[in-house]
Amino acid sequence: MTKSELIARLAEANPHLFQRDIERIVSTVFEEIAEALARGDRVELRGFGAFSVKQREARVGRNPRTGESVKVDSKSVPFFKTGKLLREKLNSD
Q1: What is the pLDDT of residues 47-63, one digit of tens each?
Q2: How far apart (Å, rounded) are the C-alpha atoms in residues 45 and 11?
Q3: Which has the closest alpha carbon to 40: 55, 56, 28, 53?
Q4: Is 51 in contact with 80 (CB distance < 8 Å)?
Q5: Biggest CA-to-CA distance, the chain
Q6: Which neighbouring-strand residues pair with 62?
Q7: E-strand spans in 1-93?
Q8: pLDDT tens, 9-44?
Q9: pTM of the entire structure?
Q10: Quick check: keyword DNA-binding in the entry (predicted)?
Q11: How far apart are CA 40 and CA 54, in angstroms?
């Protein structure tokens, strides 16, 4: 699902709201999550999951085309861990 599809579904489910307001709400939620992660905070949405930032150490990688060794710097990467309710929903038969 893309961001625009999410907005369209929310607009269908909430016909009393203007689409521009729904777009603003969705964008604000995503921006707040991104800003919190940029500060190094953890974002937990109960029943859905938790977003956090993990640090990857510097390492020596390999160029797949040439096989040449390449130095890869350390970096921060986003990490998502599913919540219990979401896992149960995905695995229910």
Answers
A1: 999 999 999 999 999 99
A2: 22
A3: 53
A4: yes
A5: 59
A6: 69
A7: 43-45, 49-56, 59-62, 69-72, 75-82
A8: 999 999 999 999 999 999 999 999 999 999 999 999
A9: 0.78
A10: yes
A11: 9
